[in-house]
Amino acid sequence: MCGIVGYIGDKNATPILIDGLRRLEYRGYDSAGIAVYNGGEVEVKKYKGRLSILEERLREHPVLGSLGIGHTRWATHGEPSDVNSHPQTSMKGNIAIVHNGIIENFQPLKEWLIGEGYSFQSDTDTEVVAHLIDYYYDGSLEEAVIKTVERLEGSFALGIISCAEPDKMVAVRKDSPLIVGLGKGENFIASDIPAILEHTRQVYLLNEMEIAVLTKDSVKVLDRMGKPVNKEIFEVTWDVASAEKGGYPHFMLKEIYEQPNAIRQTLKSRLMSGKEDIVLDQIRLSREDLEKVTKINIVACGTAFHAGVVGKYLIEKLARIPVEADIASEFRYRNPILDDNSVVIVISQSGETADTLAAMREAKKRGARIIAVTNVVGSTVSREADDLLYTWAGPEIAVASTKAYTTQLIAMYLIALKLAKIKGEIDADLYLKMKEAVSKIPEQAEKVLELSDELKDMAERNRDAEDVFFIGRSLDYAVAMEGSLKLKEISYIHSEAYAAGELKHGTIALIEDGTLVFALATQDRLFDKAVSNMKEVKARGAYVVALAKEGNREAEKTADRVIYIPDTLDEFIPVLTVIPLQLFAYHIAVARGCDVDKPRNLAKSVTVE
Ligand code: AGP
Fold first, then answer.
1. What residues flank ligand 1, with Cβ below 6 Å?
2. Nearest atom (ligand 1) to Cα of 402
3. Any idea what DSSP says for residue 66?
4. pLDDT of residue 275
5. Which atom of ligand 1 is found nearest the CA of 353?
6. Which of 62, 89, 273, 304 has a 20 to 30 Å separation from 421 between CA atoms?
């Protein structure tokens, strides 16, 4: 979604802003712009389209100055256009702002401002903020910002500069991430860490409604009343290289290959060897707490929701607690039945997804205890939850989630086993056996990656496919949903995931000669049923690719092709089964010439509803 970078120091701001925006490109955008104080005025350059267009124009007409803000916009209010791009400015052009999020009450504010004599250039919600700051400005930018944000409803991360105070930058956030980077003789703001990691590893993570006032030598953080807040410095431990491609043609492929290690990291210091218990030190549920829990809800969006569906199966099976997995945007509006004995597990790679955050807050308001599973340290989800489990996948840049998903599955495995243990629902031998199975996953995932060439070949042969189906039962169905999402989001091929037993109730009508069907058949107890479903679609002309456990050659008798997955317990095989599906989606998208890392219409972090 939108990206923000800001710089104040002694260097030329333009290249720093452009470089920062480039590192945020993965979030998805449709226009880009910067505003730099050039010694006399705030100069704005902003254009619809890729960052390269902005760069080209800046080469022709350079903008020089040591104070600036930059933005990549993903249109919400107003079509993508030069005029709707950010930065937006006040009427006199003396104040410039960049904004991520949505101002929900912009219409009444706009009408009020028009009544006060303001006129508008753009269709954006953001322009009202620039005018409001101008309205309240009385010699102190931060005071004007404090007064302005009190009138705003919705979500915002804002970076603001003014030529009336050219030694200052102000930033503020609510429901949209924003950090402050601390340098020597220079300081930064950004909506995401990779944007400024080249310059500093020391950051402040701004909390809701905190206002940062930056000069080149100082950073002051204030609360909404203007009182100073003591901030702890957060030290970023990962490096720029881990947020770059490292020789791979695409981030997505790099991230697929990073999975064994990401899984290892997520298990490290949690899955202890031998008889030792699983350690999840930020999940503090006791046996007494669990006794009172009548139901768990898992709430998430997209891929994270698919991880939640696997979590549902496992927690119900191992810990014998009823679980509902919900899409966050549905959950938040369906008046969910929750109380003080409810537990809600929120899964979010970014920890900033608007629908997930809203669902979490709704659940909290109703008394539920929140367990967050997130990949981003200091994200809003991590800060607002009661209990926490980080996935240690490292930065995920490609829009299509891969390593975030597999590490979310690992988080689900750990939570399910832990809850089962706390509740006393699992006997010691099975617990040990399951822990051992989980500990082998990283190596097994490495083996699955060796299938890449085979999947590339299959993808190239099917590059013109128009419809692809993914079918499975139980955990295979949960993985089928993720395989189907991966394919459609990056290759734009129509695809559906179906519970295999449900096909005959309608969808089988879509199967015709040559339709490609991935039939997931990794669940031992349902294998015969899966074979029957393969036969059903084959009889209608489908080309069936089965995914089955190594050692079970039975599927070969029915399927046209079989992909073998290393043998493990049925409960934990999803994390392996999904990898060939990720590789197939990746290779077919490449074969079709798609923009794999930045698929059309999608953004990495969906911070608007
Ligand atoms: C899938 O590839 C997408 N990236 C998307 O479905 C994503 O999982 C969803 O938007 C949720 O994001 P989150 O995990 O950051 O909350």
1. 301-304, 348-350, 353, 356, 399-401, 489, 605-606
2. 2
3. S
4. 76
5. 16
6. 304
224 token code pair: 């909404």
95: left (phi over 0), alpha (psi -120 to 50) or beta: beta
b/e per residue 119-146 (b: at least 16 CB within 10 A): eeebebbbbbbbbbbbbbbeebbbbbbb
487: tokens are 């394919």
Quote the ligand 1 centre to 256 CA distance (angstroms). 15
The sheet carrying 387-390 orders its strands as 323-327, 296-300, 343-348, 369-374, 387-390
Atom of ligand 1 nearest to the CA of 303: 8
Distances (CA, A) of 364 to 181, 214, 269, 352, 403: 31, 34, 29, 16, 28
Instruction: Give burial (CB, 10 Å; 0-12/13-18/19+) of 228.
Output: exposed
Ligand 1 geometric centre to CA of 485 (Å): 11
Side chain identity, residue 418: K
Q: Structure tokens of 575?
A: 């994390």
Q: 278 and 287 in contact (C-beta within 8 Å)?
A: no
CA–centroid distance, residue 248 to ligand 1 (Å): 22
Contacts of 122 (CB under 8 A, 6+ apart): 78, 83, 84, 88
Q: Where are the alpha helices (DSSP H) in 492-573?
A: 527-539
pTM of the full predicted structure?
Answer: 0.74
Taking CB atoms within 8 Å and a gap of at least 24, the contacts of 234-237 are 234/202, 234/203, 234/204, 234/205, 234/377, 234/378, 235/201, 235/202, 236/193, 236/197, 236/201, 236/202, 236/203, 237/201
What share of the chain in percent tops pLDDT 90? 84
- With beta carbons less than 8 A apart as the criterion, state whether 170 and 142 touch: yes
Fill in the amino acid letter for 114: I
CB neighbours of 369 closer than 8 A, spacing ≥ 6?
A: 285, 289, 342, 343, 344, 386, 387
Across 93-183, the runs of DSSP E, i.e. the strands, are: 95-100, 156-162, 169-174, 179-182
- Using CA atoms, how far residue 48 sits from 57, 82, 93, in Å, is 12, 5, 20
Q: Could you report the per-residue pLDDT of 517-566, keeping only the tens digit for each?
A: 999 999 999 999 999 999 999 999 999 999 999 989 999 999 999 999 99
Distance CA 328, CA 355 (A): 6
- Give 421 Cα–ligand 1 centroid separation in angstroms: 30
Listed in sequence order, the residues at least 6 apart from 394 whose beta carbon sits closer than 8 Å to its beta carbon are: 238, 242, 258, 262, 265, 403
Active site residue 163: no
pLDDT in tens, 396-439: 889 999 999 999 999 999 999 999 999 999 999 999 999 999 99
Contacts of 318 (CB under 8 A, 6+ apart): 416, 417, 419, 420, 425, 426, 434, 571
Q: Whose CA is nearest to atom 16 of ligand 1?
A: 348
List of residues 6+ apart from 179 with CB closer than 8 A: 189, 190, 191, 192, 193, 196, 203, 204, 205, 206
pLDDT band at 199 (very low <50, low <70, confident <90, very high): very high
Q: Kindly state the helix (H) or strand (E) to which residue 220 belongs, with its residue range.
A: strand 219-222
